[in-house]
Amino acid sequence: MIKLEDVTVIYNNKTLGIKDINLEIKKGEFVGIIGPSGGGKSTLLKTINLLVKPVKGKVYIDGREITNLDTSSLRKVRRQIGFVFQDYNLVERSSVLANVLLGRLGYMSSLQSFFNLYKDSDYYLALQGIKEVGLEDKIFARADRLSGGQKQRVAIAKALCQQPGIILADEPVSNLDLKVGENIMNYFKKINEKQKITIVINLHDVNLALKYCHRIVALSKGQVLFDKKTGEVDEQL
Ligand code: ADP
Ligand code: ADP
């Protein structure tokens, strides 16, 4: 489903992002990426959907190499990959519904998206996503009126609205209190179990990774320190 083969990313010809990464993630896995700040977690996630381009190696999604795809083919691959950010990445002055509908943009032509020509099926998917994260009573609320946890739930609903096979989440709970963070992790757990969506999540908090993820990949200095099933990780981390 996701495969990285000898992937190296270097920024501006000088700063190492990740080095010689070999990683295979199967459909339905729930993988936590941990490691020190600057270890390469964010670079790894961004490499999976080619937000950053490797200088070496190959990236595969569903068995297909995507490393050198043209922009329009890459757009089609990316619409099956939801991305959840640390800072939510919402349009603050728009409603929950409007934000979640943006998850459909990848499926629309530029003309359709310019005129906001959503179809009934887009609204249906948006409402399903909103329900999945329990925000039915906030559908028309403006994003900037929501709490951090609610904003992140909107971001998850937006990702779900893409009908993704994969969700990548880059430190999605780092700006939240532990309790709210656990609540968000439970939503990831639910959509992983119920919808069989593959989840790869960067986590600063090792304990959260141990509690929710099935597999832990530890990165340091851009390289894999270990890659284990959660039950086999030494708790003395
Ligand atoms: P983490 O997510 O584990 O904190 P990152 O992937 O953000 O690690 O960073 C890995 C290395 O790449 C760091 O040295 C960081 O400074 C560098 N880096 C990340 N993004 C950029 C960028 N856009 N331009 C230059 N260097 C970057
Ligand atoms: P993260 O923990 O997700 O890497 P950062 O705060 O490190 O977040 O990075 C925020 C943004 O700045 C990202 O888009 C990242 O690509 C970029 N960035 C990170 N490190 C550097 C760097 N050393 N030089 C330039 N841009 C960077």
Automatic annotation (TrEMBL):
Pfam families: ABC_tran (PF00005). Keywords: ATP-binding, Cell membrane, Membrane, Nucleotide-binding, Phosphonate transport, Translocase, Transport. Gene3D superfamilies: P-loop containing nucleotide triphosphate hydrolases. One of its GO terms (cellular component) is membrane. The keyword Translocase applies. One of its GO terms (molecular function) is ABC-type phosphonate transporter activity. SMART domains: AAA. PROSITE patterns: ABC_TRANSPORTER_1 (PS00211), ABC_TRANSPORTER_2 (PS50893). Residues 2-237 form the ABC transporter domain. The keyword Hydrolase does not apply. This is Phosphonate transport system ATP-binding protein. It comes from Anaerobranca californiensis DSM 14826.
